[in-house]
Amino acid sequence: MKITAAVMEKADGVVTRRSIKLEEVDLDGPREDEVLVRITSCGVCGTDRGCLHGQEPYPAPGVLGHEGAGTIEAVGRLVDNVKVGDRVLLGFPFCGTCPSCRRGKPRYCVHGSDLMFSGFRLDGSSPMKRAGGEALAARFFQQSSWATHTIAQARQVVRVPDGMDADLLGPLGCSITTGAGTVLNELKPRPNSSIAIFGAGNVGLAAVMAAALTPATRIIVVDKNADRLALARELGATDAVEHDGDTVQRIKDLTNGELDYAVEATDGSNLVAEAVEALGVLGTCAMVGGAKASAPVKLHHGDMLHAGKTLTGVMGGGGTTPDFHLALMHLHAQGRFPLDRLVRRYPFAEVNQAIDDSDAGSAIKPILMM
Ligand SMILES: [Zn+2]
Ligand SMILES: [Zn+2]
After folding, report:
1. pLDDT band with cut points at 50, 70 and 90 for residue 250
2. Ligand 1: centre distance to CA 156 (Å)
3. Contact, 247 vs 241, CB < 8 A?
4. How far apart are CA 70 and CA 39, in angstroms?
5. Which of 75, 243, 293, 347 could be joined to 79 by an S-S link, Cβ 3.0–4.6 Å?
6. Ligand 2 center to residue 331 CA distance, Å?
7. pLDDT at residue 13, as a whole number
8. What's the CA-to-centroid distance between 103 and ligand 1, angstroms?
């Protein structure tokens, strides 16, 4: 079928600013374990921008977008978790059969990197082609949802309950779940504990909203952007720290040196070392930020050893997928997880503007409306 996709081009091997153009392309039907989704909205996430700006490798010509939401238009022969007409959001891809998937840890699927960043199915194929027949790298996170329609794995699709605004909920596919899941699934703050969240972008602010749902009593947010710090306070942060050379000491002062948890959720600033240093004895830091994959992290041996600190990576919020997505949807509907406060909607044709605004920090969570 003919669809419209936002195709990213490379010039001399480099993706240039505003290199995305809407284009009519051909889309195959779903395989037996896949679904055809008419995409109605898709978020712009840090990882899309990371691929555009060279922090993560992604082939071009290709199609980005990995926070899609839409309506099921066709299902493969073996699909039984959704049906035609269901409103869905598209979550993380996973193989379903590797050791991690069998252990109930699909976020750590051993094929995760290929499923997210190769641009193709694991067998090297793509369901999307240009009019001339050139295959597009159109399996970003196995969904490439900056398009009017896409093919996704049935297992990565989550049904949105009737009456909910699916177009607002697409970011539960990645950024929002990453921030909230890190707090609620992994760190699980204990009563009267303290947590510091570095970075008040979409991931960090989701972590703030999640922390506000826990018995942690000190929620410190760190950023350079005063507007975002103010918003973080409205969303539940008890303390806002403008990042500078004294940030670690200020957190130690606020917590009497006993910070229990830290979340490093910056968009590439790589403040992991500061987040770990700010921890008190037996503290835990979760790293979820958008630093370049090869970025080094420098820790102090004695500080880690003598204070019994833990540093852990968390992918996509950890946890198991469908129940957690449903929990966040219901919490949002109840007004207890107001993710709409982060969102600005853009027409699909303004995809480059949405990226620019996200890069500039003026939009926290752009959502493209198809
Ligand atoms: Zn797997
Ligand atoms: Zn993402």
Report:
1. very high
2. 12
3. yes
4. 4
5. 75
6. 21
7. 63
8. 9
